[in-house]
Design a protein that fits this description.
about 130 residues; Rossmann fold; 4 helices
Length: about 130
């Protein structure tokens, strides 16, 4: 059985690297996207994505909130965590969770586990795009 897959969408390369590396260390499979356009391309590619972690403000045509909305239209049960220093939790709908930047890897890992379980626990929900 494969580990659950998390899509990390973050335009700051160092932040994306730290997030992806930390989540891999925990046991998740990680896909990385440098912006919302690339994230949407991954979702449309039919790769299995169990959960999305996305920044809000990114270059390109698709920001984190639009990516969240498009993800929900493709797979309503797939959880999305929106992370931002420029947004309030009340503005993060339809995201499942909101983390204000800066946040700790422990807080992110706890949020992911609450939403989809540990890396090897497969959800009964259909999360593929």
């Amino acid at each position: 059985m494969d580990a659950q897959t998390v899509l990390v969408v973050e335009d700051e390369i160092l932040i994306r690297f730290i997030l992806a590396d930390s989540l891999r260390d925990i046991g998740y499979q990680v896909l990385e996207a440098a912006d919302g356009d690339e994230g949407l391309h991954i979702l449309n590619s039919m790769q299995v994505v169990d959960l999305i972690v996305t920044d809000v403000r990114m270059p390109g045509d698709v920001d984190g909130m639009e990516l969240t909305q498009r993800s929900k239209s493709l797979a309503p049960g797939r959880p999305v965590i929106v992370c931002s220093a420029h947004l309030y939790k009340s503005e993060a709908f339809p995201a499942d969770e909101f983390l204000a930047k800066p946040y700790s890897i422990a807080a992110l890992a706890e949020t992911i586990e609450r939403l989809i379980g540990d890396p090897w626990q497969k959800s009964s929900q259909a999360h593929s795009a």
